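Section handout 9: paired folding examples.
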Amino acid sequence: MTAKIFIDGEVGTTGLQIRARLEGRSDVSLISLDEAVRKDASARRDAHAEADVSILCLPDDAAREAVALIDDPDARVIDASTAHRTADGWLYGFAEMTHDQGMRIADARRVSNPGCYALSSVALLRPLVSEGLVPSDFPVTINAVSGYTGGGKALIERMENPKAADAISSDYFVYGLGLEHKHVPEIQVRSLLDHRPLFVPSVGRFRQGMIVQVPLQLDALPDTPTVDAVHACLADWYRGRTFVSVADPADAAAHVAQLDPEALNWTNHLRIYVFGNAKHGQAVLAAVSDNLGKGAAGSAVQNMNLMLGFAETTGLEEPLKAA
């Protein structure tokens, strides 16, 4: 079977990464529009109708408009924008979120690809809330740093072109301090939290890679769980999964001095670490991933594989290119 894939928005950062992951495969063929008609509604409608799976790599409003172009309610669509991540009728495309989420994605017609920060945050929080170690009404704080490609073409230009009118010269900056980051609603909903988490993102001067951290004062949690109990909950949840893994205590100890946000670049992997100090009753959960890999394009390809009945790992076994 050769499946036809239309990436609507293939020239954007995520679209280019998805295309690069699919171009060498013999089980899919790409529908691509000439530049002259790339934004033409009629041409796009025809491409969506021809595709076995459409992948939307568009701004939110444009993604909603693209869905309106798709006449067949049974057409399979993956939306990489924020537009449908908490919307009715759309399944959240984090295959490892629950034990049956991958099977649900395989049967779905509308799948919303997670945001990069959100996927890591949900990966850390969902198991702990589900198993009762973190109450659903707990005041959660999330800190994160991402490579600048997460900001798309505009931020890439500002970081890489010193002659840009609004060029950024600093090596690190915090943003989103109005506390309205677009990933927060999906983090709250998919982590089963009663209240909005306090989310503080930042950007470093590196192209891609990400660390998301959730600090925990263990004595503020019911029954004061130990560091080992937190680790065991996460390890049990993700045991046997290909793309999400939990570092054992020895591995975590080896990264105490320095955790590298670029360690999993060009892959579809997410690695969870539990750092803790039993004497002080404190823990920090950390998730490392590629914001363009598992945080975007990699997840989209993984979801596409599931929806088409391919092996989940197809095209994702090896890094996209040497980091």
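Moving on to protein 2 of 2.
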Amino acid sequence: MVPARTTTGLALAAVLLLAGCSSSDEASSDNAPSTSASGDALTGGLTVFAAASLQPAFDELTAMFANDHPGVKVDPVTYDGSSTLATQLVGGGNADVFASADEKNMTTVVDAKLVAGDPTVFTTNTLAIVVAPGNPKKITSLADLATVASDGGAVVVCAAEVPCGAASKQVLDTAGVTLKPSSQEQNVTAVLTKVESGEADAGLVYKTDVLRAGDSVQGVEFAEAAKVVNQYPIAVLGDDTRASGHDEATAQAFVDLVLSDEGRKVLERKGFAAP
């Protein structure tokens, strides 16, 4: 039988030991880094200007960002041809992030000293011929596309100043094909829409646009497409372009998401390729 005095001493020691552990745990907890989501620290707003072809991917990425950072008001992304967006920014438009479908239009914004830091190429894209389901005109090449146009068919492309238009001209030149389109659109979405609606027989769009259209159109790949690859850069914009209440940290957090493994997976699901 253990003496009462010894039992009391053991109990007291146990209490002191537990108190010490509790104190130590509290100190460790106080010194440990916070595990709360980084979004809790971000506030203000986020405005993104992005090339029209990025819409499927950036709609998903901005929704993810808004969910992760509830303190940030995420505006609907402004999508258009990269040249149009660059012109708006140089003309005084407000945005925090610019994602272009080519490096030329990003350079326009950089040269205007509207970018904070250096742009980063985050994905790539190539062209495809888009036709109606079943390919009623039996188009299998750029030469076939030109023949349809010359025979009175409606073939649409992007305007030359738009990245998809510059790429279209380059692939046609590479193939030695002269194409007379029925119209030249200011962004790739407009080309896709005309083929989807039946207003055009065929057009040149990005492979990602064919994918996002689903069964409403059909894509035709051609060999020359692999020789013309669009590089997509993204950049945080500087103080002169940000609206009141918007800050660089929030913009950088969105760019970080786009460049992350998670962002890459979203882009790949939408048909974009690694840079």
